[in-house]
Amino acid sequence: MLTAKLLPLLALAGRAAACTTVAVGKAATVDGSVMCSHTNDGEGMSDPRMIRIPASEWPTGTMRKVFFNPEDYPRYVGTDRATTAVPEYLPQNQIGGYMAPFEPMPGCEIPQVPHTYQYYEDAYGAHNEKQLGIAESTCSGIFGAAPRGQNVTADGKIVVGKACWSIDSLSQIAMERHSRARDAIRDIGRLAEQTGFYGAGLFEGGAESLLITDVDEAWIFHILPSEPADGEEYSSAIWAAQRIPDDSYAAVTNAFIIRDIDRDSDPDTGDFLFSESVFTTARRHRWWSEESGEPLDFTATFSDGEYANKYYSGRRLWGVFNYFSPSLNVPAEYLEYRYSKPYPVTAKPDALISVADIAAVNRLYYIGTNYSQAGSGYNAEMPDEGGAPPSLRAGVELGYPGGPWGSPDHVAGNNNTAMPSGANQYGIAGNWERTIGLYRTSESYISQSRKNLPDECGGVLWYGPYSATYTVTNGTHMQLDKDTMFWANRYVGNYVQLKWWAMIEDVRAFQNEQMQHHLALQARVDTACQAAHAGGRRPLFSSMPSDDPLHAYYTNAERVTRETWNLADHLMFKYADGQLHPTDTRFGTLTPPRAYGSFGDTVPGSVSVIDKPGYDGAWLETVGFPEGPPPPPNCTELAQRYNRPICGHVAPPNGPFREWLQLKEFAVVTGLACAYKGDAAAATNNCH
């Protein structure tokens, strides 16, 4: 049985071209879990649906077909994936009138095994009923390949597609067939060697990485296509894997991290697995030799470095290490990524890591550091990236890429390929620095595997559609659907941009509240599961009756969706029109009445319901607010200009406006007419 739990990280592709992944060994977590996490940071029309693939029994002689995944919405999730019919998924393929062709790749099929496990997948296999977990991150590689049956033009040359396996389909095989990470790695590596691997792109994005976990171990798996070979029916693959020590963690951020490979490692008990092509390819090109006595550095040899821009991968690694292991004091700056080895492959955390800690890492914008994309004006020393409004932070040199409300989310420039590289619509080349927290994340999840509990409840998938920064689940980019958590989170994530530094505090409070609720729910389900298991009963049932512990997870997901929409309404009311409307309920719009005096001011002692905090003063100075339109000329200035009495040169005396009115001393200017102390006729005579 497979347990799924939805993670409220509120505001928790084309291509998933920029994913961040983290894996943690069992001795580095607070409860002995082995965990891995994935953020699907694609753009455009990525497919955020979380799909359950049922377990199946297969007749002898069945062949397992391999489907091409376009990396867009919708991917194929039909009945060829299981013997149990899954028609409920098929209508989702046609939302918005869009339908992709779902044809098996020619010549790409393998003998099916008698039994396949139940599992959940988003764009990639995520978590199966035996507690195997997978997290994916696209990487650059020095070789590229095209999918079988498709010819791709690159640099004016036609690349003939010969490869059967993408990382999507390999992750599905791992989910369907394996309970141990080590076995899954050997199997998918073998399949890729036999009939070829292709990545999302020919070079940039042409390689891949998986973090693969089970109840005992966590592994890093890297793979790229082999060199193109003329005359061969299929291409092949180059791959390597390294085990993460039990007391450590690792992160992959769109670039390989495995360094020195122990060629003598025992495949059954050692810490390294690899294809022999790692060494034969490096030897053939004289990138490495046994005679040198040096180990082969996989990243230096086969990575094509950071793509998009410098620090695209390395800065995120720095963010993870800086959060979990600040005592390491890893560098934020480095010369280059491939050869200088700026970061370790794995590290021990300063404190044991929890699910909530990984969720927090997935939200990081580096606020409080020199690399905050909100701007230094909004930096504060805050471990949870909370803090006061910028106006309360004195003595900080201000910078405002985040605008007046300090948002760290920045949309990229124009993507027109005719523009210069990196240029926006004005032809300005440049980049925003890549953070871990990201507005364009379509979904994120944390796979948790626990050996001390039965598989029925030991494995938990914490799933959050849309950006982890705004997430608290299904949905699609094609249609706004208020029944989905994806759109609830996306709605909040976009609305928060209007006043980020203020609204994000409400969002974080909601996140923390929901996380505590989820952890308490998980503990109750664990207790019920253990009791049922000890009594010889099956603890969880696919039919999910109301008293089934698993039913609580699904009911909880519906509750979180409703409350997230309530949060959106709360933010709309509280911050409408640049004002601040305090509420007397968490998500309510009830407010105390406001009393007004006869002169339109608030009666002393009444509750001031509406506040107008306005923009930060330093930002106003930066954008030239003090140089804006001046006040209208006063009477003295007008008299000097026109060389005659204007308003009788009567100026309001010092003191409050109300007292002045009560003394009947006033001046009202309408054009050049005025009135002052005395009768109206005298005033008129003296003014003209």
Any key phrases for this structure?
688 residues; alpha+beta; six-stranded mixed sheet; 23% helix; disordered N terminus; disordered C terminus
> Main sheet, how many strands, which sense, barrel?
6 strands, mixed
Q: What is the gyration radius calculated from CA atoms?
A: 31 Å
Average pLDDT rating: 78
Q: Largest beta sheet: what is the strand line-up?
A: 1-22-21-3-2-17
Morphology: globular
What low-confidence regions span 5 or more consecutive residues with pLDDT below 50?
3-17, 87-99, 379-398, 415-419, 466-473, 588-607, 649-653, 655-688
Distance between the termini: 93 Å
Helices and strands: which structural class? alpha+beta
Number of helices: 14
Portion in helices = 10-25%
Strand composition percent: 5-15%
Q: How many distinct beta strands?
A: 22
Structure write-up:
- The structure is a single chain.
- By secondary structure, the protein is α+β, with helices and mostly antiparallel strands.
- Among the domains are: 46-344, no CATH class; 635-687, no CATH class.
- It has 14 helices and 22 strands.
- The strands form seven sheets. A six-stranded mixed sheet has the order 1-22-21-3-2-17. A five-stranded antiparallel sheet has the order 11-14-15-16-19, with helices on one face.
- Strand 9 (119-121) and strand 10 form a beta hairpin.
- Helix 1 packs across helix 2, helix 8 packs parallel to helix 10 (549-574) and helix 9 packs antiparallel against helix 10.
- The chain is globular and about 105 Å long.
- The model is unreliable at 3-17, 87-99, 379-398, 415-419, 466-473, 588-607, 649-653 and 655-688 (pLDDT under 50).
